[in-house]
Structure formats: structure tokens, C-alpha cells
Amino acid sequence: MIRARRTAGDDRTDDLLGLMLHTRHPETGLPLDEVNIRNQVITFLVAGHETTSGALSFALYYLARSPEVLARARAEVDALWGPPGEVPPSPAFEQIPKLRYVRRVLDEALRLWPTAPAYGRQAREDTVLDGKYAMRKGDWALVLLPALHRDPSVWGPDPEAFDPDRFAPAEVRARPAHTYKPWGTGARACIGRQFALHEAILVLGLLLHRYDLSGDPSYELKVTELLTMKPEGFTLEVRRRTS
Ligand code: HEM
Fold first, then answer.
1. Domain boundaries, the chain
2. Out of 2, 38, 109, 134, which residue is the most buried by the measure of CB atoms under 10 Å away?
3. In 2-125, where do the E strands start and end?
4. 87: pLDDT confidence band, cut at 50, 70 and 90?
5. 41 lines ligand 1 (CB under 6 A)
6. Per-residue model confidence (pLDDT) at position 45
């Protein structure tokens, strides 16, 4: 694709590839080299596509089963964009963070099914974690997020229950740090987090605004894992909302 655009003298900058091909560094004046661009594209495909689409699938699965949550999320998007009409809204960047309840729905879906379900860290030297767990230099620790995110001492007696209000500000403040890590941790945490949140809230908000959603009531959640996790065989019926 990079070569095809170069050969065709295609200088459009209305998509990501075009921006990377034609933007120059503000100080050095240099463009990105082609290997760098290729790596960025692969990052988007591997790290940034299935992760977000899986998070949306789980969020839609829970929305389809939770009429009260769906109604609240719907009320929020309608308050922002008005009732559905012939002309769909054209959301401004600044509007997306206003969809706070939609954000909570996503946060809660990522609690139960963090689509990148684990991260590892390797000990640089012999150490003892928390005074309890001996690690030798080179040992690995794997943090399994679906387990961390279901710890009843943090999430209460029914951690399996889908409840976006767990992410209401007061609830978040009351929880200990480091108990919710769908984006990983520390300096190597997800670099695409803000992008993913913005994209997912935008898409989920628009779906809620444009369509009535109903899931198959007989569907039982089955999670499959390739590189990331996603619901297997889940389908959703969508009907255009009319004013
Ligand atoms: C819902 C969507 C996403 C989830 C749940 C997610 C989750 C994660 C997790 C758990 C890590 C490992 C962090 C660690 O080791 O501490 C990670 C790393 C990473 N993510 Fe994401 N991610 C998402 C979307 C994206 C997007 C949209 C991009 C880029 C377009 C992206 C790019 C990356 C990259 C490059 C790393 C490696 C960072 C490093 O090692 O320094 N991710 N992500």
C-alpha cells in the first residue's frame, strides 16, 4: 500500500497512512521512513484493532442483556445529540468525553473481559514480591487480568455482575490502586489507551443513538481467545431508530 501510493503520486492526507507519508517532523523536517510507517500500521492492526472491537462486542453483549443499563446509556446519547432523526449527528471531538455513562459501560465490560487478558514482567534481579513471593533474576510474573478483576475483596461478593456504576467516581476513589488494569501498568502500559477509549465511546454512542439493539435471549456467553478475547457466536439484531 505504501509503495502503491508513492508510485501513484497519491498525496492525500485524509487518512492515517496519508498523514504518516506526508507529515514532516516539526523540528527536523524529516518524514517518517517507510519501515517506521509499516511498523505503525502493524501496531494498529495487531494491538489496536481486535482489542477495541472485542471490547465493543462485550459491551454490546452486556447492553443487550441489561435493559436498565441500555436505557441509561441511550438517555445519555439522546441528551447529547437529540432524538434520532434523518440526519445523523456529526460528533465533535470534545463531545465524546461527555458520554460518561457510556464510558462506564466500556470500563465495566473491560473489567469482566479485558480483551488483552494478561501482561508479564521479568525480574531484573533476585527479589521478593510483597515480602512473600521469591523471584530469581529472569523469572517471569504473569498478571491474569480476568482473575484480578474478579477479586471479591475488591469488587464485592458478586464480581460477575455487570454494573457500570462500579465506575462512578466515588466508587473508583474508594477502591485500592492497581486493582483495575485492562491497559497494563507502568511505563509500558498501553500506548493506545486514549485513542481506543475515544474510538470505542464514539462508536458505541453512535450505535446506541442510531439503532435499537436486541441480542438472542438464548445465547450463553462463550469466550474465545485468539490474540485477544471476544464473545464467540454472539449476534445482535439492529433496527434503525426513527424519530
Ligand atoms: C480496548 C483496547 C485496548 C486494550 C484493552 C489494550 C490493552 C493493552 C495492554 C494490556 C497492554 C500491555 C501493557 C503492559 O504490559 O503493561 C497494551 C500495550 C500496548 N498497546 Fe494496547 N490496548 C488497546 C488498544 C490499543 C490501541 C488502539 C493501540 C494503538 C493503536 C494499542 C497499542 C499498544 C502498544 C504499542 C502496546 C505496547 C506498549 C509498550 O510496550 O510500550 N493498544 N495494550
1. 2-46, 48-113+150-240
2. 109
3. 118-122
4. confident
5. no
6. 85
